[in-house]
Amino acid sequence: MNTNKNIIGLGAALVIASLAGVAQADDLLIIDLSVENQMTITATDGLSAADAAASSFTGVLLADFFNNTSTGLTITNGVGDLTVAGTSSDGSPSIFHSAGSAGLNIWSFTADAPAFTAGQVAFTGSGTWTIDAASYADMVGGNTSGDIYSPADSDDDIPGATYIGTYRVVPAPGSVALLGLGGLAATRRRR
Prior knowledge:
The protein has one domain (about 25-190). It is built from 3 helices and 14 strands. It has helices at about 1-25, 135-140, 175-190; strands at about 25-30, 40-45, 50-55, 60, 75, 80, 85, 95, 105, 115, 125, 125-130, 145-150, 160-170. The strands form 3 sheets. Strands 5-8-9-4-13-14-1-2-12-6 form a 10-stranded mixed β-sheet, with no helix packed on it. The longest helix is centred in the first third of the chain and has 22 residues, at about 1-25.
C-alpha cells in the first residue's frame, strides 16, 4: 500500500516538475494590442531555447497567433529597431500573415546574417505597426501566447524549423475592455 502511495507521489512530482518547466519558458517577445489598429512588439531579455538558423527574408513565426486562418495580412512595414540579438536593425521590420496559416511572420529586420544561440538573448528592440481594422480584430481575437519558430514564415514551415521560445500578448485581448469596465464600476461605486 505504501508502494502505491509512493508511486502516486512520484507521478505527481513528475507532473508538477514538467509543468514548472513549461512555466519557465522564456517569453522572448511581448505583443501589445492595447492601442486600436496598432501592434507593438517588444523584445524581452528572454533567452533562446536552442541554436537556430535565422533568415531576415524568411523571418520567425509566432505560431497560433490568429484563431482565423482564412484571411491574410498584406505585407506591412513597421518602424522600430526590432531584430535578432547580435545583429543591427534595418529600422523597418515587416510582418506578414499568410492566408491559411494561424501564425504571424516577422521578417526583413536586418541586412546581417542572423542566428539564435541557445542560452543567449534572442531579440532586441521593438517595432510598431499600424494595422487595418479587420486584421486588428483578428489579432485581438487571437491567442494570448504561443511558440516562436525560426526560420519560418507560415505553418507549413514549422516541421523543419526550430522552437526558440514563446511570445505573450499583453494586455490579453479583451482585458483592455475589462479594465475599462472595472474602472467604470470603481468610479460609480465611489459616488
